[in-house]
């Protein structure tokens, strides 16, 4: 992420190249993520067109152009991959990439391009174009009224190590009530504006402080060193226009980009690739010093660069030089599925439950009503037809928490079972009726006298005596 030195370079580019130029037109791309704070791309373009750039200011990682006339100022933040590019020059890269070129225009992923015309008293005399670029759309553009420092987001920032660095006494007082890790505190933009991941790691390496050290455990000397390096590191980077290849050779920044590779392996890799343009594991141009093979400890031996996670950020440190104070234990981070995973899940569930108490209490009455809802017309009709009115009507709707498909299957199954039972009862009843009817018909029908069966039956019945007297 571009940090204070890179943002200062962008601010300086605008002030040195565009001051006194009039914005004659703005090509702003529609992007509801980049344009924020109630500002859309059309409003942004309309409000700054026709005004002259009078300067460019910065606090922390936020910077803005000051313009002539009435209206708001364009306030910018680079996010992770934002850049400023003047036509004909390279963009203000964080770390130079080989694909970045001064010849491609308009640049890929631009969010706005300002077409500028020189005015009387302007720095140059030829037309210029200025672009804001952001490939990952994590930057922000908005319009803010003057004075910008009195409005969010700038008003919520802490001290700027370059613009208004506190005295040692003031700095010590700011740390009194802090209880987090030292890296987490100095990266908090409400504490020190502009300090990002690499600046924090460099500050702590130069101050010889472990990034995970709790603030209360810092010694008086630690606080002095931290106070000094918080200003010294950004000043040094700005002095070389934030060109990482010109940073001091003993800076951790020059060696930190071969993440996951030990220095011995990296040295062997470097020897094999001599004469070739080096590209590090992050995809950027290698910034290691050409006259050194490794980051040296004070005794000249290779330093061990270790990567840990502090405050959710990947953190580089040198174990031999950045040690925890005596008595302070670092709790190892266990990856997913470790013994702490269950506890973390329980804690998260507990927090979620406490957040949802009000919502659940508001919904309790609704859920109760749901469970007691009357049957639908279709269910009543089915119940009456199938003779299962007592079976279904007596039940409350307890299946509301089931998936809808499951509820339908449950109801269909219940109705089907009841129908099967009904059909069975009907069959039994019909069978019984047929049996009784058949028996009755058989009793009422006279037997055939001429047959042997008829004679036997006639002899056994009361009427047989009368029939026997009839002459054949």
Chain-wise SSE layout:
Elements: H1 4-18, E1 21-28, H2 41-48, E2 53-59, E3 62-67, E4 73-77, E5 83-86, E6 110-118, E7 128-133, E8 140-144, H3 168-175, H4 182-187, H5 197-207, H6 220-239, H7 263-272, E9 305-310, E10 313-318, H8 341-355, H9 357-371, H10 377-386, H11 389-393, H12 404-444, H13 452-459, H14 464-468
Helix pairs in contact: 1-6, 5-6
Helix tally equals 14
Strand order of the largest sheet: 1-6-7-5
CATH level 3 topology of one domain: N-terminal domain of MutM-like DNA repair proteins
CA-based shape: extended
**SSE string:** HEHEEEEEEEHHHHHEEHHHHHHH
> For the terminal residues, how far apart are their CA atoms?
126 Å
Task: State the CATH class of one domain.
Answer: Alpha Beta
State the CATH superfamily name of one domain: MutM-like, N-terminal
CA radius of gyration: 42 Å
Strand proportion: 5-15%
List low-pLDDT spans: 260-264, 269-284, 334-372, 396-402, 447-451, 453-472
CATH architecture of one domain: Alpha-Beta Barrel
Secondary-structure-based class equals: alpha+beta
**In percent, how helical is the residue content?**
25-40%
Tell me the total number of β-strands: 10
Name the average pLDDT: 77
**How many strands, which pairing sense, and closed or not: the largest β-sheet?**
4 strands, antiparallel
């Amino acid at each position: 992420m571009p940090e204070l030195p890179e943002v200062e370079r962008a601010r300086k580019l605008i002030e040195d190249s565009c001051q006194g130029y009039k914005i004659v037109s703005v090509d702003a791309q529609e992007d509801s993520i980049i344009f924020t704070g109630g500002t859309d791309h059309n409003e942004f373009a309309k409000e700054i067109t026709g005004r002259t750039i009078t300067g460019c200011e910065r606090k922390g990682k936020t910077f803005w152009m000051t313009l002539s006339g009435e209206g708001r100022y364009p306030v910018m933040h680079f996010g992770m991959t934002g850049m400023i590019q003047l036509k004909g020059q390279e963009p203000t890269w964080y770390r130079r990439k080989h694909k970045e070129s001064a010849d491609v225009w308009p640049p890929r992923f631009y969010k706005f391009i300002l077409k500028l015309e020189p005015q009387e008293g302007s720095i140059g005399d030829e037309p210029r174009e200025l672009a804001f670029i952001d490939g990952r759309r994590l930057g922000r553009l908005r319009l803010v009224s003057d004075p910008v420092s009195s409005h969010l987001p700038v008003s919520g920032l802490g001290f700027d190590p370059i613009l208004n660095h506190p005295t040692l006494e003031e700095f010590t007082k700011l740390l009194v009530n802090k209880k987090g890790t030292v890296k987490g505190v100095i990266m908090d933009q409400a504490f020190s504006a502009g300090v990002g991941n690499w600046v924090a790691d460099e500050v702590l390496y130069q101050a010889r402080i472990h990034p995970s050290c709790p603030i209360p455990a810092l010694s008086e000397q630690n606080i002095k060193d931290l106070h000094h390096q918080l200003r010294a590191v950004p000043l040094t980077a700005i002095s070389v226009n934030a060109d990482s290849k010109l940073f001091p050779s003993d800076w951790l920044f020059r060696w930190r980009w071969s993440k996951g590779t030990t220095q011995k392996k990296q040295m062997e890799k470097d020897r094999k690739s001599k004469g070739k343009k080096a590209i590090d594991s992050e995809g950027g141009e290698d910034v290691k010093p050409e006259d050194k093979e490794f980051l040296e400890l004070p005794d000249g031996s290779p330093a061990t660069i270790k990567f840990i996670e502090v405050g959710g950020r990947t953190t580089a440190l040198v174990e031999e030089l950045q040690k925890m104070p005596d008595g302070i234990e670092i709790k190892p981070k266990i990856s997913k599925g470790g013994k702490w995973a269950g506890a973390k899940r329980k804690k998260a569930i507990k927090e979620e439950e406490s957040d949802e108490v009000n919502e659940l209490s508001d919904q309790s009455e609704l859920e109760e009503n749901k469970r007691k809802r009357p049957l639908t017309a279709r269910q009543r009709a089915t119940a009456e037809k199938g003779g299962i009115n007592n079976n279904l009507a007596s039940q409350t709707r307890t299946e509301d928490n089931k998936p809808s498909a499951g509820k339908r299957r449950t109801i269909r199954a219940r109705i089907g079972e009841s129908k099967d039972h009904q059909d069975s009862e009907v069959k039994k009843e019909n069978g019984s009726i047929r049996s009784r009817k058949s028996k009755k018909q058989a009793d009422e029908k006279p037997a055939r006298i001429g047959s042997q069966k008829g004679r036997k039956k006639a002899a056994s019945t009361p009427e047989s005596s009368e029939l026997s007297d009839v002459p054949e």
